[in-house]
C-alpha cells in the first residue's frame, strides 16, 4: 500500500506501534487518536505528504519521531492533548501546512523545536500547553492568522521570526506573559488585534513597529499600566476598544493616534484614572509630552552597568545578579525635565530629589552610581518630573510601577490544593492540565491557594471560568470560603474544562498592589463521562477555519446516543445558535457564518445532556 484515502487509528487501548504502515507515502486523511499505549510513530517513516493529519490524546507518545520524511500537509495539522509529548522533533522536513496548525493541550511541551523547516502556515494556534516556555522553532515561519492562548508558563513571544503583517493576531489568557517581544517587526494587522486576559503583561513593548490595525482590542489585562510600545500606531481603520484594564493609567503612547484620527471609533473605558476615556487621555497627556518620566532602568551600581528595563510587577532575583549594590535610573522625555523626585515604598522606604541627569534613586557622580542592597519584599516606586530644579515649576507625567525582590524563589502564590469540602480533607496539589475524576474524589469540592508566608498577603480574589467567585481576607485562602479548617464547597463541578485564577493583593478586599497571579486550567470527568469521551462521540475542528461565508463542522456520534445538539457561542459566552443532530455515526453540518461579526467563536457538542467537547473557530470578513 502506497497511498491511503482515509486512515483512522482511534481508541486502541493496547496498540503500542504502527507496524505495518511502513510503505505508506501519501494519505488524504490520517487520524491517530486516543491510543494510550502508543509509544512512537516509527512505522510512518515513508510518509511524505498528507492532506490532513491529526495526532490527539496519545498519552504515551513522547516525540513525533517517525515523521522525518513528511514534507507537506496541504490542509490541517493538529497536535492535541498528547500529555507526554516534550517537543516536535520528527517534523524536521515539514516545510508547508496549507491551512491550519493547531498545537493544543500538550501539557509537557516546552518549546516548538522541530518546526525549523516550516516556512508557511495560513493559521496557527498555540493554546493551553501548560509547560510551554518558548516559541523557539518558528523563526522561519510565516502565517496569516495567529492565536497564542492559555500557555501558563510563557513569558514572551520570542521565536516568532520576522513578521511584517498578519490578518488576525490574538494573545489570550497567558498567565505569566510579561512581554510582547517577538513581534518587533510587525507593521500591520489587516483584520483584528486582540490582547486580552494576560494578567502579568505590563505594557505593549514589542509592538514598536506596528503602524496600522483594522480593529484593536486591549481588554482585561490586570497589570497593564502603560501602552508604551504603541507610539508608532497611526491608524485604527474600523474600530478599537481599550477597556477593563484595571491598572492602566498611562495611554499617552496613543495620543498621536487620537490626534491624527479624532473621528475614529475608539472606545476607552473602565481603566485607571489617566486612561478611563478618550477625553481623559487627552487631558492627562496634554502638555506633558516634554516633561515626563518614560521608563526605569535597573542599575548594577557596583559596576555602573545597566541590567535591564524595569517593568511593572517585575521580579528582581538577587541570586541571578552579579551585585547586591543596586540602583534605579529614571529615563525622561526631554531636557525640559530639570528635576525628579523619587518615592520608594515597601520593605525599604526612601525619598530623594535629583537635579542632575542621570536621575538615579540613590544618587550618582556622573556615570558613577551609588547603590544599596534591596531586601526581599514588595515595592512601589514612583518618579515625578518637574520643569524646574528642586522640584519646582510644573509637575509632569510621573512613572509608577510595582516590583518584587526575591532571593531565589519567585512565586507568592505557590500552588492550588484540591479539598473535599464534605470531609475537609486535602486531596492533593492541583497543577495546570490536571484531570479531576469526581467519582474518585467526590463532587463537593473547593480549592485553596498556597502562599509564600514571608510576603504579607492581605487578600485574595478568586475567579472560576473568568467569573469572580470570592474575595478572601484571611488565610487559608479558599475558593468558596471557610471558617478555619471547615471549608465551604460547591456541588457544581460537572464534566468539562475549567480555568481557576487567584490574584493576591497587598491590602484587604482586593485593594492595594496586585502581588501575584496564578492561573491554571483543569478538566473534570466522572467515571461515566470518561467512558463516553474515550470510546464514543467526538467533535472535530471546523474547516475552513478561519471562515468567511460558510464552514463545515464534523463529529462522530455513537449509535447509543439518544439526543445530540451543536451549540454556537460568541466570544463572551452568549448562545447564538442551537442545531439538533438526528444522525448517528459520522455527522457533517454546514454552518453559515456570513451574518456573524468577525471574531472568535466557540462551538460545543452535547450528547445526552453531557458535554463532549468544545472547539474554537474564527470568522473573518
Summarize the structure.
This protein is mainly beta and 621 residues long.
Describe the structure.
- It contains four helices and 41 strands.
- The chain is mainly beta and 621 residues long.
- The chain has a twelve-stranded parallel beta sheet with strand order 1-2-3-4-5-6-7-8-9-10-11-12, with no helix packed on it.
- The radius of gyration is 26 Å and the shape is globular.
Mean pLDDT: 87
Evaluate the radius of gyration: 26 Å
Strand order of the largest sheet: 1-2-3-4-5-6-7-8-9-10-11-12
Query: What kind of sheet is the major sheet?
Result: 12 strands, parallel
Strand content: 35-45%
Low-pLDDT residue spans = 528-535
Instruction: Give the full name of the CATH homologous superfamily of the largest domain.
Output: Ribonuclease Inhibitor
Query: Helical element count?
Result: 4
CATH-assigned fold name of the largest domain: Leucine-rich repeat, LRR (right-handed beta-alpha superhelix)
Number of domains: 4
Assembly state (oligomeric): single chain
**Principal-axis shape:** globular
- Class based on secondary structure composition and strand pairing: mainly beta
Architecture (CATH level 2) name of the largest domain: Alpha-Beta Horseshoe
